[in-house]
Specification:
By secondary structure, the chain is mainly α. About 45% of the residues lie in helices and about 0% in strands. It contains five helices and no strands.
Length: about 130
């Protein structure tokens, strides 16, 4: 191989590698932001039944202290463990006694469930100042 071809090949390999590295650093791999990513999902899909006007099953999701208390069926979240978190079980429809939520609406999109799952895996950080 000629030196120019070798340089070109090395340059292309470096460019492709950097592109793959950039893709791996996409925003989807960072920390989940409760206010920007989780709260809108809860507001749009959950608060109609678990908000200030209604608290079905004794669960409110509009206030941190109330949400973390859980409802009639127990704790909502097990920080760091999505498989044991009621929130994840009900949005995935895998809980043995509670049907998939939201019950009277379309299921959450797989991307939304993945985001909630990642948030719980990361410790379910819920800022005190978040309404």
């Amino acid at each position: 191989m000629q030196p120019l071809g070798l340089i070109f090949g090395a340059t292309m390999l470096t460019a492709v590698s950097l592109g793959m590295l950039r893709a791996a650093e996409s925003p989807g791999t960072g920390r989940v932001d409760f206010r920007k990513e989780v709260q809108p999902i809860l507001t749009k899909n959950c608060l109609e039944c678990h908000g200030p006007e209604k608290a079905k099953a004794g669960l409110r999701l509009d206030l941190k202290v109330e949400a973390l208390k859980g409802g009639d069926t127990g704790a909502l979240l097990v920080a760091g463990n999505p498989a044991k978190s009621l929130l994840i079980q009900v949005v995935e429809g895998t809980h043995s006694e509670i049907s998939r939520m939201p019950r009277k609406r379309d299921p959450l999109a797989p991307e939304q469930i993945a985001l909630l799952r990642k948030w719980v895996e990361q410790g379910a950080d819920w800022p005190d100042a978040a309404a």
